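We emphasize that the prediction below concerns an isolated chain of 355 residues; any contacts that depend on oligomerization or on bound cofactors are therefore not represented. The input was used exactly as deposited, without trimming of termini.
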Amino acid sequence: MKDSSLHLLPKRDATVTRIEYIDALRGFTMILVVLQHVALYCLNLKGVPSFHTFLIQVRMPMFFLISGFMVYKMGLEWNVSYTLGFLKKKFPVQIVSTLCFFLIYVHCKGFDVWQSLTNEFKVGYWFTYTLFLYYIFYSIIRIVFKKNVDLVVVLFAFLFYAIAYPPFYDSIPLEMEVKTLLGISHWYYCFFFLLGTLFRKHFIVVQALMDNKYWICGCLLVYFLLNVYDDCLPQTGVIHGVSGLCKKISGICVLFSFFRLYQQAFSKKFFLGRFLQYIGTHTLDIYFLHYFLLPVQLSSVCWVFEKHPMPILELCFSLVISLIVIGGCLMIGNVIRLSPILAHWLLGAPRSNNA
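Result of the prediction step, given as a token string:
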């Protein structure tokens, strides 16, 4: 397959040229996030047969993988000076913006601030905070370890995955409020964040692997067989953890390969590509705002899907609601961007940006 994205890879400089199908993939993953929240919070489909059972296995791992992919800079030497500048640049949007929307949402819902802050999911606003911790972890790894960096990254990836796994998580000698405040249960996503940095570093190899029909065939089989016959596996902690990790990795590879194979369709030449890329470059607008726009009075629809499970119809219904919510988020986001100050502190836009 002819690769039209190889020329986009930087060689020695630290600048990153955007790859269109990666932005489209990020946009698609953001749609999956809203789709899942519609299913859980609006339709209350917990335990009901649904496509979300499979989508949830790849959406957040893929999101963090892309985040790690974007962080890695070829030819860049990580040191204390660069790290402090990098974290200073990320702090306003990852922490300040998140805290602003968190406090507004908690006030609107009438929740207790401390209980919400020490909640595992922080009423939904855990992602950017957790991602900022990953930036710190990765910076420390790159500063401390100068040799065999790839091996060290892989070892730390498995370490974070193990720390957050229930048997190890429960044995951590910290108060539960401290563990939930730090979001340690979400640290296993750091595995995919660190994997994303390796994807970027060895992108030529990754692309060749994703183009290999035997590799993708194997990933499809692993993903399918583990999901179909998961109940046949021993339900021990280690086996269950390995099975879950294999599902996520194989699902990520299949999804990544699909967007790469059809990258022309996801380019700006076509509406689908422009649409997904626009969402992919405005994920913060959607993430921060969509919780305010999720409909809650859908009890009659919930009853229909609970009593008469129809996965395809439910998926289509959830998708329509999700696209309406995303459209509202983008509109509100563009209104906020009328003010460069608000756009910077609430949505992470560069200070020089105008509407």
